[in-house]
Amino acid sequence: MTDLPPLARTVRPAGSWAAAADRVLLAHDARRVRRARMTTAAGASLLVDLPAEAELVPGDALELDDGRLVAVDAAEEPLVGVCGADLARLAWHLGCQRVPCRIGAGEILLPADEAVAAMLVALGGEVRHLSAPFLPDAVPGQPAADDPGDGVVRRHEHVLRAAREHHFRRVHAHAVHHQAASDLAPEVGDDPD
Prior knowledge:
This protein is an alpha+beta fold and about 190 residues long.
């Protein structure tokens, strides 16, 4: 029988552990994992079998069955940086396409994709190609790639709740406005004289 590589069934959140025996460098897409075979920086293989899909963030650690920890780090990968006079409009188009991105001061970083880059250029964006670790901003209700630790989703729930309440108040106020206006307006077919 062949010896299987060590097995990781648990993720230790960033900040909850002190020392790792090794580390894995993972690109953005590879950090969303349920089951996988990985190779560490030292060249060792390991298997990952988590109870549910998880978004690993740099600073997390995979706990092996023998108790050793393997740190998770973001690997460099091909990215596109876009800037332009109307960055908000470019970000809106990326959001419509569900493109993961990192919005910074004056630039948006996203995974390299020639079709998306061409769209951004056609919309007036200036595109540059680079290689760097990719840590996308969080989608509301999901943890940010660089927010360490457990509880990240809970920290964002208040934002979602406030947005829902704001939307409800706007819709409710708009409906009340229309009801008040219809109370003042004559019925169709009413003779104003």
